[in-house]
Write a structure and sequence with these properties.
Main location: membrane
Structural class: alpha/beta
CATH architecture of the largest domain: Up-down Bundle
Strand order of the largest sheet: 9-8-7-10-11
Strand content: 15-25%
CATH topology of the largest domain: Four Helix Bundle (Hemerythrin (Met), subunit A)
Keywords: 2Fe-2S, FAD, Flavoprotein, Iron, Iron-sulfur, Membrane, Metal-binding, Oxidoreductase, Transmembrane, Transmembrane helix
GO cellular component, one term: membrane
InterPro entries: FAD-bd_FR_type, Fe3_Rdtase_TM_dom, FNR_nucleotide-bd, MRET, Riboflavin_synthase-like_b-brl
Order of helices and strands: HHHHHHHHHHHEEEEEHEEHEHEHEHE
Radius of gyration: 25 Å
Helix content: 40-55%
Number of strands: 11
Subcellular location: Membrane
Number of helices: 16
Length: about 475
């Protein structure tokens, strides 16, 4: 009788806790949006108060004035982008990695476009509006103005980052190479901004403006130093993670088991991921993101990895006792996002790893959780999911085979029924559930479309993709 009463009680507490955290996260998202637009309005006001609108009356001064405005907005957005990349926990938890990645890409491309416009317009304006004099003016500005050589170097780094962020370019790069190149964005921002802090009219127009820019620059630099460097090193030293065993799950998938000191202090939740560096092997300096495939119990961790590149393939040969450096935990695909009593879990391929951890770690009563598992050949964790079905009342639906169409999330093994009809049949109350989804980006997008057609509110859909 006690066990029968305690399970729903734990479930209710989990939902109440998730609802409370959801409200807090919504407040953080609102505050972040307000902060972003407040900053943009402030820099626009300083530009206007400094004669920006008045200078539009003449051709050359107008070019310079618009160039100053684009530079101000670009600088503000560039620092915002650095903050988005800094893994600040309150932002990470409120937005989640997928949403942060979308915002980061949008802010980054906008900032880059405005920065290019700034360089062109300022140079053209300083050349008195004469196109033929622009190259010589650019040379003079670069060599004679304080900080301009640094700005040129920073701009080149940003060109490199943006160029390798284009989807066609990313497809030609290994993840490890792309990640390493992407870190040059920090160096680009650090080099591109000082010339404005030292000489920019709107940066020096008033003590308030000066304080704003130096504070924003300091916050961005400090966030990167603390959350991307100091905290990961401190956590890695404190917890002393080491590999205890490597178990082959299939021909191209292995699970790595790890242990360490006081792992409960990591505050990891089911469904989250870490950035991992396995020491003592080639390429250990490059971090790789792998999700937990088992609910953390405070004593050990497990990740399950498919061989998709050099680093993931080499994990099969990692030795017992290998020391590990970690960054994280990251991601919102966790109990933190939960606001409903019932849940539906969708996993495809190796995307089942965080879903399997959620199936174990979430609180739910028998029949309140359903897992839809799409796989091509053999399902991962079949025996473990069978145990969860027997002991926890998890309902597991297998969807075998390749995707039957590019816009379908169902496997080829199921014919004669469309995605929407199948989902309504299997989970008729989907709109009353929290839905967690992980898998390849095209498959996830198919699930998103179908769940939206069923009537699932967007705030109840929690997604993580394996794209970069």
């Amino acid at each position: 009788m006690t066990a029968a009463v305690s399970a729903p009680s734990v479930e209710r507490r989990a939902v109440r806790g998730g609802t409370s955290r959801a409200r807090f996260d919504a407040g953080v998202r609102l505050a972040a949006v307000v902060g972003l637009w407040t900053g943009l309005l402030l820099v626009t006001y300083w530009w206007s108060a400094g004669g920006g609108i008045r200078d539009l009356g003449s051709w050359a001064d107008g070019l310079t004035s618009v160039g100053r405005l684009t530079g101000l907005i670009a600088s503000d957005l560039l620092l915002v982008q650095v903050l988005l990349m800094a893994r600040v926990p309150v932002l990470e938890q409120a937005f989640g990695q997928d949403r942060l990645a979308v915002i980061h890409r949008l802010v980054g491309l906008t900032s880059f476009d405005l920065m290019v416009a700034h360089v062109v317009l300022i140079t053209w304006g300083y050349a008195a509006g004469r196109v033929g004099a622009t190259p010589g003016t650019l040379w003079t500005l670069t060599w004679d103005y304080p900080g301009m050589l640094l700005a040129v170097a920073g701009t080149l780094f940003l060109f490199l980052v943006v160029g390798t962020s284009i989807r066609a370019a990313r497809r030609r790069l290994r993840y490890e190479s792309w990640h390493l190149l992407h870190l040059y964005a920090y160096l680009g921002a650090g080099l591109a901004l000082p010339h404005q802090l030292w000489t920019g009219r709107e940066f020096l127009a008033s003590p308030a403006a000066t304080a704003y820019w130096w504070t924003l620059w300091g916050l961005a630099a400090g966030a990167v130093l603390v959350w991307r460097v100091v905290l990961p090193l401190w956590r890695s030293a404190r917890h002393g993670l080491r590999v205890t065993s490597v178990v082959r799950e299939s021909a191209d998938v292995v699970s790595v088991y790890l242990t360490g000191r006081r792992l409960d202090r990591l505050r990891a939740e089911p469904g989250q991921f870490f950035q991992w560096r396995f020491l003592g092997r080639s390429g250990w300096t490059r971090a790789n993101p792998y999700s937990l495939s088992a609910a953390p119990d405070g004593r050990s961790l497990r990740i399950t990895v498919k061989a998709l590149g050099d680093s993931s393939t080499s994990l099969a040969t990692v030795r017992t006792g290998t020391r590990v450096l970690v960054e994280g935990p990251y991601g919102r695909l966790s109990p933190r996002a939960r606001t409903r009593r019932k849940v539906a879990l969708f996993g495809a391929g190796v995307g089942i790893t965080p879903i399997r951890a959620l199936a174990e770690g979430l609180a739910y009563s028998p029949g309140d959780a359903v897992l839809l598992h799409r796989f091509t050949r053999e399902p991962l964790f079949a025996r473990e999911l069978d145990v969860l079905a027997r002991e926890r009342g998890l309902r597991v639906l297998d969807l075998p085979g390749h995707r039957r169409a590019h816009d379908s999330w169902l496997g080829a093994g199921l014919q004669g029924v469309d995605d929407l009809t199948a989902l309504r049949h299997w989970v008729p109350d989907l709109a009353d559930r929290d839905v967690y989804v992980c898998g390849p980006e095209p498959w996830v997008e198919s699930v998103r479309r179908t769940t939206a057609a069923v009537g699932l509110p967007a705030e109840q859909l929690h997604i993580e993709t394996f794209g970069w």
